[in-house]
Amino acid sequence: MKRLALLVLSVVMAISVAPAQAENWTSPFLPPDSGLVGWQLVDRFNFEGSISWLKQNTKDADPNAKQEAEWRLCVEPGVAPCTRADGTYDANISLPYCATEKQEWCIEAIAMTPSGARKIPGEFIRNVAGPTTNAVKSLNIPKGSTAGLWRIKGVKHSGNVDTYATLVNLRFVKSAKDREPFIAYMDARVLPYREVTGASSRTNQNYEALSVAEFFDDATNNWLAGISGGSEECAWTESDLCGLIEDFPAKTNISVTLRIGKRVTGWLMGRLENPVVNVSPFNSSQNKLTIDAKPVDVPIFYSTVNPAELTEAMRKTFMVDGFEVDNPEGIWSQKGNSIQAFDVIPAWKDAAKDTAVALTRTWSFATTSNGSGSKCLENTDKLLGLVTTNATAYEGNAPNFVDDTLDYKVAGMHFNPDGSEFQGRYDLVMLKSVAQCLYGFKDAPISATITVLNNGAEAKVATASLVETGSGSNKWLKLSAQGFTFSNPIVRVKLTQDATQTVKAGTTITCIQGKKTKKVTGPNPKCPTGYKKK
C-alpha cells in the first residue's frame, strides 16, 4: 500500500471523550391515540431485502404516467393478471446464496476479521421462509430468494451468538420499450441477529412471516401490491420467529462478495468505515464485487411533540407531493439520504435538544446517482467510487464537482445520547482514473486538501488521510476525514498533482495545410493527416 502526500487546512488533536455505546434501537411503540406528532430519520423502512416478488402495471404502459398505476402480482409474464403485452414489470429481487461455482446474481461469501485476528469465513445456514421468484428469461430478470442466514464461527455479537443475516436487494424495472430491464437500485446490508420466538417485545404481538399481497385501494380505484408482516426489531421474520437485531462486535471488519451484472455500475453510497473496494470480472456479463469495511455508529434522529407545540418551520417539514399537510399525525419517517432530511434536522433540532436518541452500528451500501459538475462522474460502464459517512443525513448522490473541488453535504446533531460531542466521519473511495479525468492528471502521485466547512467557516478535523491502492486500471484513491462536528457541514476535497505531472487540459494548437487553417483542442492535441503545427 502506498501512502501519498496529504495537506489538511484545519487539523486539531483528536477529542479524548469516548463516544456513546452503540445499540440496537427501534422507534418507541406509540399507540394510535397518543396524540403526538414527530419525525424519525432511518436507514431502512421495511424488509424489501428479505423477500422477492414480481408485479406488472396492468393499467398503463408508462410507469411515469400521471394517472394512478394498477399493480398486480405476477406468477409469470403472460399469466393472468399479468397479460398486458406493453405493461411495465417491476421486480424486487433478494439475491440468493451462490450454490454453484457458475451461478450468477448471488451472494458468494461473507467473512469477518476481528481486531488482531485472522479472517473467518462465513458458513451459509439457510434462507428464511418467504416469497421467492423464478428467473424470467424473457425479461432477463434473475431468480429471487429471501434473506440469507450465516454463521461466523466464534465471532459473537451483543446477543452472545455468532449468527448474521445478509439482505441484498435489487429492483429491476422493464417496460415494453426497453430491451433490457433497468436496475433502479441495489441495497446490501449485514445484520447481526439472535433467534427469538413468541411475541414482539415492542408490541406484544406474535411475529408474522413476510408476505406480499394485492389490495384494492378505494381512494384511487386501483389494485396495488405491497408487503405485509415483519417487525422493525427483526432482521427477518417467520411465523412466531424473529431474527432479533443485535449489535456488531466492536472493531471487526466485515467483507461481502457479490456476483452481480456489469450493469450495476457508477457510484455506491454506504454506512461503512475505512472501506476497501475490489472489482474483478466473473464472466463476460458479471462482475465479482467485494466490499470490506468496519460498520459505523450512526446517530438516530427521533423527536415528538404535541401538535400545539409545532413551530412554523416544523410544520413545513410535513409535505406530501409538494403540499404542506394541515394536521399531521403520528411519526413520520424519511431515509437519511433524502432531501427532506436536511429540512427536518434544523427545524426539529431544538425539540430534540440537538441530541441523538441512540447510536446504531450499521454496515450497508447501496447504489446512488452520480454527482454533478463533470462528465467524469457520469460513466456507467464501471464502478467509479464509493462514498460513506456516519452522519445522520447525507446527500443521496456522489460528490459534486464545484470549482475544482469534490463537495459532499452532510447534517446531524451535535451531541451523542450521553452528552459527548458527536464526531463525524467521511470516506471516499474513487478510481484514480476519475481523478485523472477531473483534473487532467497523469498516472503519478496525487495529493489532497481536505476541508470541512460548517456554515461557511472551517470546522475542526481530527485526522485526515489519502492512500492509493490497487494497480493498473484498478487503482483506487482512498480519502478519509474524521473528527469533525455538526450542524450542516460540507466536506470539501481538492486533489492536486505536481505541475510537471499534470496534463494541460484543453490546450489549443493551430494546424496549417497550404492556405487552410484548423484549430485542434484537447489534452494532447495533434494535427490531422496532411496538416502541420503552425
Summarize the structure.
This protein has 534 residues and is mainly beta.
Strand content: 35-45%
User: Distance between termini?
Assistant: 46 Å
Largest sheet, described in full? 16 strands, mixed
Number of strands: 39
Structural class: mainly beta
The backbone outline, from C-alpha atoms, is globular
What is the overall number of helices? 3
Helix content: under 10%
Q: Measured on Cα atoms, how large is the radius of gyration?
A: 25 Å
The low-pLDDT segments are 1-20, 501-506
Estimate the mean pLDDT confidence.
86
Domain count: 3
How would you summarize the topology of this molecule?
Layout lengths: L1 E2 L2 E3 L28 E6 L10 E5 L13 E3 L14 E7 L11 E9 L5 E2 L1 E5 L20 E4 L11 E12 L7 E16 L13 E7 L4 E7 L5 E5 L2 E5 L6 E10 L4 E6 L1 E9 L4 E9 L1 E10 L6 H4 L3 E2 L2 E2 L5 E6 L5 H8 L9 E5 L1 E5 L14 E7 L3 E2 L5 E3 L2 E7 L12 E8 H8 L7 E8 L2 E2 L4 E7 L6 E9 L5 E7 L10 E7 L2 E7 L9 E2 L1
Parallel strand pairs: 2-32, 3-24, 18-27
Antiparallel strand pairs: 1-34, 3-21, 4-5, 4-6, 6-11, 7-8, 7-17, 9-10, 10-11, 11-12, 12-16, 12-26, 13-14, 15-16, 17-20, 18-26, 19-20, 21-25, 22-23, 27-31, 28-30, 29-30, 30-36, 31-35, 32-33, 32-36, 34-35, 37-38, 37-39
